[in-house]
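Need a sequence for this fold. Nothing fancy.
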């Protein structure tokens, strides 16, 4: 199996991503969410959302993290979410409504490389298993957008597959390269990308999933950031 230092590419258009996640939306909570639950919870613990905060989730999927964040920020806070899939948005909105949490939740269908929010709008941003499905040049675009919409001193938490030279990671990357439409996400170096985008990494925590490396990274936008 070929060893490569480089992060694999994701040869997929935004429209293909939208179609693919629309198709997956109804099965997501049964087929995928249970296997990622622990890692997402670790990310939410690291985010430690406080009452009254305004928090954005990028790529919220079926909305499980949004529910937890909406509960934590409470009525005085607000949660916003952006996702490219209309079907994911429909499911997430229904869940928030069912739990009486839709009042302070603002969901948008859109592409995270162009966030439709004002500069310095959020106290914190959360992402889980999303950054690792953007093609390499887009990772930086997404993080630069996150930095723009985050308040000075604000924090970002990212949970994603982590690049590592292990047999299981290399096997997984080979499968990703062979079947990119089916195995869309791949290991990345989130901490390094966050630093490249101008964040300061505060904490990195190693996790695993099916023998693959997963990393939770907490980073901050400095008080003097542009
Ligand atoms: C693997 S799912 C993860 C969902 C959720 N974060 C979770 O942990 O359950 C990835 C999500 O990212 C969304 N997504 C993919 N490309 C996107 C883009 N360009 N902009 C915004 N969201 C996108 C998908 O529609 C999908 O809901």
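Here you go.
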């Amino acid at each position: 199996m070929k060893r490569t230092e480089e992060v694999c590419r994701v040869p997929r258009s935004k429209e293909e991503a939208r179609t693919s996640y629309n198709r997956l939306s109804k099965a997501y909570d049964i087929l995928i969410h249970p296997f990622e639950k622990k890692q997402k919870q670790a990310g939410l613990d690291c985010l430690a959302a406080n009452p009254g905060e305004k928090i954005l989730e990028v790529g919220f999927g079926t909305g499980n993290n949004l529910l937890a964040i909406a509960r934590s920020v409470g009525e005085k806070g607000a949660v916003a979410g952006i996702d490219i899939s209309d079907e994911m948005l429909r499911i997430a909105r229904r869940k928030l409504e069912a739990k009486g949490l839709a009042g302070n939740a603002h969901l948008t269908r859109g592409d995270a490389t162009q966030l439709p929010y004002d500069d310095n709008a959020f106290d914190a941003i959360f992402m889980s298993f999303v950054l690792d499905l953007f093609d390499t040049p887009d990772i930086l675009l997404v993080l630069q957008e996150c930095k723009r919409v985050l308040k000075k001193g604000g924090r970002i938490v990212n949970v994603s597959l982590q690049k590592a030279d292990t047999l299981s990671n290399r096997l997984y990357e080979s499968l990703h390269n062979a079947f990119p439409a089916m195995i869309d996400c791949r290991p990345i170096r989130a901490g390094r990308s966050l630093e490249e985008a101008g964040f300061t990494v505060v904490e990195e925590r190693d996790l695993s999933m099916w023998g693959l490396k997963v990393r939770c990274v907490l980073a901050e936008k400095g008080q003097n950031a542009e």
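For context: The first helix runs from residue 14 to 31.
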